[in-house]
Write a structure and sequence with these properties.
Elements lengths: L2 H20 L7 H5 L3 H15 L3 H22 L2 H6 L15 H25 L4 H25 L5 H13 L3 H14 L2 H8 L11 H6 L1 H6 L10 H22 L1
Length: about 260
Amino acid sequence: MSAFVLKIIALIAMFIDHIGAVFPDYVPFEFRIIGRLTFPIFVYLIAEGFHHTRNPKKFLLRLLAFALIAEIPYDWAINRASNIRQGLSPWNVDFLNNTNIFYTLFLGGLSIYIFQHIFAIIAQRKEDDKESVYLTTSAIVAGPVLGIMWIADFLGAEYGGYGVIFILLMYIIKPKWPKLAVFAVMNVLQHRGLIQFIWEGQRFDNRFFLLIPATLLTVPLMAWYNGKRGPSLKWLFYAAYPVHLAILAVVAWVII
């Protein structure tokens, strides 16, 4: 399975998820369950992208640009109800609060970019094996990454600091099966709040139990990933995010 196919799956799941987020009174909760496929696929492919890109800085700046561009339709669509409850205009835009997934992808990418540079510096100075350089780099980069995770939480980016470390781990871990094992664990930890509710015996809609297995469906998808890019429609995938949010915002303005 190529990266192209995985992106198509993620985009379809994302669109369904956002329909459920914008119109919760009009569509079943299962729309949100299907949407759990999206983020883990994005995480894996962003990490893959930094392994293969010839220009990490350009890749990073592209993520930042689309984070800022997408925040306008994101606030109009996803944060519309929240804005209204707070007495704000449904067209309110806040670039520093409750921010979109591209913020998380950018901050995760920034962590990778820092790791790459520190790794390159240490690799030039040390004659140790690559594994030793990786361990040293990981120890040094821990501080900056914790800061970046804090920024993600401060900005209210989707998945916050958890999303940042998830992306970095998918970049650092190279062997396929250990990577998939960590990928599975991180998918479960995505629902750590739900796990806590279950542990404490709190009552909630039983459909929430489906969120974890839905997210774990991405594990076999990643196992089938063949490392090939497939057809190159890079700008289509980037543009799909703000465009579909803008469409949902217009539909919400008409019917809600």
